[in-house]
Amino acid sequence: MIKTNIAIGFLTGLASNVTGIILYILLFSETGIEQTLKDAMRNDYLGKIIALGAALNFLPFFLFLKKNLLYHARGVLLATVITAVIIAITKIL
């Protein structure tokens, strides 16, 4: 049961991150989603866009804490940490 709750939180964190990325691109980019992501990969600022999208993880994290769903919140935190590790690895390589 605990692993299921963490998995639900993890998937919620990933979905929140993807939603944050899409919202950021739609609000602040003049080009489309695909073109913005291609340009970000070429000019090496994809990690910054992913980090800005991860800021949306605050919403489900604090919502889960407020509802006392601690293992769900741990899953969201795990998704955020994995996102940070992926950004760090891409910056090193």
How would you characterize the overall build of this protein?
- There is one protein chain.
- Helix content is 84%, strand content 0%.
- The protein is mainly alpha-helical and 93 residues long.
- It has one domain (2-92).
- Helix 1 packs across helix 5 (70-92).
- It starts with a helix and ends with a helix.
For the biggest sheet, the summary is: none
Characterize the overall form. elongated
Taken in chain order, the helices and strands follow as: HHHHH
Give the helix/strand class: mainly alpha
- For the terminal residues, how far apart are their CA atoms? 38 Å
State the helicity in percent bands. over 70%
**Rg of Cα set:** 14 Å
Amount of beta strand: under 5%
Q: Domains counted in the coordinates: how many? A: 1
The parts where pLDDT drops under 50 for at least 5 residues are none
Count the helices. How many? 5
Overall pLDDT metric? 94
For the secondary structure, the number of strands is: 0
Keywords:
93 residues, mainly alpha, 5 helices, 84% helix
SSE map:
Blueprint: H1 2-28, H2 33-42, H3 46-54, H4 58-66, H5 70-92
Quick recap:
With 93 residues, the chain is an all-alpha fold. The chain has 5 helices and no strands. It has one domain (2-92).
